[in-house]
Design goal:
alpha+beta; 39% helix
């Protein structure tokens, strides 16, 4: 657990990025070591209600769920911005500091650095 947590300082560890993400790769490796052969992934709506479920083998099922989430929540950004105004979006996304900072992580991907 400590090894996995320490991977978070790697610049390739970003929300929404799976390819070459050391934390994601570490978790997949751990699941394989544990011989996970069936998964059940649930996508929820903004009210926390089940929107869609995916089940099957570990990696293909997960990637199918990821593609579905990207298709309904993904946004194409043509250019990064110098300034951003961010809000977690209200309850439950701002119920504590940890959850609220997730919106900052997403917003950072939209900003030019070193401006």
């Amino acid at each position: 657990i400590h090894h996995n947590y320490n991977l978070s300082i790697n610049p390739d560890c970003r929300m929404g990025v799976l390819e070459e993400n050391p934390i994601h790769l570490d978790m997949v490796e751990a699941a394989k070591i544990g011989k996970v052969d069936f998964t059940f992934n649930i996508i929820t709506n903004q009210d926390g209600e089940m929107y869609r479920a995916f089940c099957g083998d570990l990696e293909n099922t997960f990637m199918e769920a990821v593609k579905f989430v990207e298709s309904i929540y993904g946004v194409k950004v043509e250019a990064k911005s110098d300034i951003g105004v961010v809000s977690p979006g209200g309850e439950p996304f701002d119920s504590d500091l940890y959850r609220a900072q997730e919106s900052l992580d997403h917003a950072l991907e939209l900003l030019r650095m070193g401006v």
